[in-house]
Design goal:
By secondary structure, the protein is mainly alpha-helical. It contains eight helices and four strands.
Length: 230
């Protein structure tokens, strides 16, 4: 990874996500800080990313790097953590029972991912599906159901849901503009994760390969006898 990408491109990407994730563009413009559960989810996600080789802390913080390089790597890791927290803040309803239900859903999914997914490609694919489904649920389904000026059928469905749950499923729409900003936020976040450095090793020809990709790892194992002189 080039110094420009580590020190400028990736921190700017993730800090932009951290800013956009808390932006609400409705009747007024608000910046919503992440709740405590979003920080917990972000820590779990970061652990999953490290386990699956999407994020490699040893490439950013190590004794072989200078103090300035380690500072740059530490800033990048903090930016990833902040961006992850704001992504969950963006996709989770702000209050009420829906906030609790979506938070518990994210918690269960991340605990499952932390113990099951160990491959970089699979982790990125699973994360994209998880965040995409949560985006559709909040900014398409809920926004359409609770939007002002909705039709009679939508008002009846909303009244039935609130009656069954004693009003606990109340939701305040954030506006379509927030949805567009949220889509940009998630896109930048996933692009940033794809650009993150991974654990590397050298094959027989001196080419660096990623240990997080099974096909390349198998190719490396096939070269081991030759490396040992067998």
């Amino acid at each position: 990874m080039t110094p420009l990408r580590e020190a400028f491109v990736l921190p700017c990407l993730f800090l932009t996500v951290a800013l956009l994730g808390g932006l609400r563009l409705g009747a007024d413009v608000r910046l919503v800080p992440p709740p405590l559960i979003a920080l917990v989810l972000a820590a779990l996600l970061l652990g999953s990313l490290v386990r699956s080789n999407v994020v490699a802390p040893v490439r950013l913080l190590s004794q072989q790097r200078s103090g300035l390089e380690n500072t740059s790597g530490g800033v990048l890791l903090l930016a990833v953590l902040a961006a992850s927290a704001q992504v969950f803040n963006l996709l989770t309803p702000d209050t009420g029972l829906l906030h609790l239900l979506v938070s518990v859903f994210f918690l269960v999914q991340l605990l499952t991912t932390l113990t099951a997914v160990r491959d970089r490609v699979s982790m990125l694919r699973s994360l994209a599906v998880l965040l995409g489904c949560a985006f559709v649920l909040r900014f398409i389904a809920l926004e359409s159901l609770y939007s002002p000026g909705r039709g009679v059928m939508k008002r009846v469905m909303t009244a039935l849901m609130e009656g069954i749950t004693l009003g606990a499923l109340d939701y305040v729409p954030t506006g379509s503009t927030t949805g567009y900003v949220g889509f940009l936020c998630l896109s930048l976040y996933l692009v940033g994760l794809v650009l993150m450095p991974t654990m590397l090793t050298a094959d027989r020809g001196g080419t660096l390969v990623s240990l997080g990709q099974p096909a390349q790892t198998d190719e490396l194992y096939r070269h081991l006898p030759a490396l040992r002189g067998e």
